[in-house]
Amino acid sequence: MADTSFVPAASQSRKGKLALRWLLYILLGLFALFYLMPLFVMITTSLKSLDEIRTGDLIALPREVTFDAWRTAWSGACTGIQCEGVRPFFWNSILIAIPAVAISTLLGAMNGYVVAQWRFRGANIIFSLMLFGCFIPFQVVLLPMARILGMMGIAGTIPGLIFVHVIYGLGFTTLFFRNYYVSIPAELTKAAKVDGAGFFRIFWSIFLPLSLPIIVVTVIWQFTQIWNDFLFGVSFSQAGTQPVTVALNNIVNSTTGVKEYNVDMAAAIIAALPTLFVYVVAGKYFVRGLTAGSVKG
Amino acid sequence: MTKWLEENTPKLVLAPSFVAILVFVYGFIAWTAWVSLTRSRLLPKYEIKGFIQYERLFDSPRWDTAFSNLFVFGFLFIAIAMILGLVLAILLDQNIRTEGAIRTIYLYPMALSMIVTGTAWKWILNPGLGLEALVRGWGFPDFTFDWLVNPDMAIYTIVIAAIWQSSGFVMALFLAGLRSVDQEIIKAAQVDGIPTWRVYTAIIIPSMAPIFLSAFIVLSHLAIKSFDLVIALTGGGPGYATDLPATYMYAMAFSRGDIGQAASSAMIMMMVVFAIVVPYLYSELRSKNG
Q1: Per the CATH hierarchy, to which homologous superfamily does domain B57-289 belong?
Q2: What is the distance in angstroms between the Cα of B113 and the nearest Cα belonging to chain A?
């Protein structure tokens, strides 16, 4: 689509074209401001003292930069009765996300490999059923899941949350790998079988080495989903096992004491940092994951 | 034995996931559906009593608010995010030198948790120290922007924050779509002297119908599942003015101890999702296999 850009219609003067070009850049810049403004406000607010917040205005730069709010947010802010900041909860989120991402990605890779390359009767139906699971509103499984976690003795624990994230991540991870492996010619598998390679051997030495891009996409997708999750976190955790999103919400909505907006903002940025970091270093793969489910390949 | 094992390895590998999905998705849906037909309150009961929970649901003014909010919010969110996304994509499609950087800026909110988004916008929109105070400080002492605490307007703050979060994603979808349109047709149109805007309205946009559909499905899915954003931004308030079905369900399940209501509201949510997603998935799977 590069070439349609304001092709000179005979009547259009050079000047008019230039003005249009400027207008275009101004518009794009204004939109960029709209998207950046909340992040800017969060950062500046987190660096101000409470006094300055009360007397200054929303978009002013801090007159005096202070990191007190960051310190409080990290290790002193109250989430209910506990006043240890977001640090322990940040740690919880890591403990939840890493195993959940690893397990769901591994299972998704194996499932996708089976569905794409080892078709058997019913494999497509199984895949459709799994795919469908991606779309259910999770409210419909909250009540029974709470009971089952209780029966399994992992209610309110980190393993419990890992379990939940693995189960409900499977649909997407399987979809990602299936769509990737389906484009690899089936002859490859057939030839390897003729040569006497088995199921795991073919996966290990043919498919896995080809899979790096889709592994990156899946890991990023799962990590973002799990790190940013709130519904499961708030439903299936208890005081000591809450993920960082739940802790953040508790800090912001705690009703005791003075409202410390700078601490709220610092805590919000801390909670957002890991996924923002992933986005900045691997944006291409992040976008690919987002669009994988929605654009027909 | 080893031969059997060899032949059935693929099935054995897939089996645990399949069983898990069967139990934890379909089994759980069945459980919720069953309980929604009982008189369950604090504890589940399993004796079917008909549609009593659904009658209670539709008699409840709170559900009424939540359900109509879903349509107000969903409609505005989807419509504005699609229009904004399309406009941004077209603007970005004009040989912009800094396209990569701008795209990154437009899309980063999608990497944030809704709780973070809600926290940020709650601070920006709070009437005391936020935007309202800012504009008043610029010399407009009568300026009022109190949507966050105004029961009639609070739902629109959710729309604003949700659009901020997701419109960049819609832009990315549309941009990918614009780039996949056949370049030859566009060149031909240009040679014929057709103005750029006509090329867009007559050729490019109509050929992106599948992308509109995808964007619609993704956005409506996001709208129905919206829960975190409401909790972080308004907590469902003032009163229950910004309740959505998702927050209603959560309140019934975990703070009101009304399992019957929680189950029936969850079932309604699922039916809304199915009404949108099933035809889409069905056509997708058919076109892929056929």
Answers
A1: MetI-like (1.10.3720.10)
A2: 4
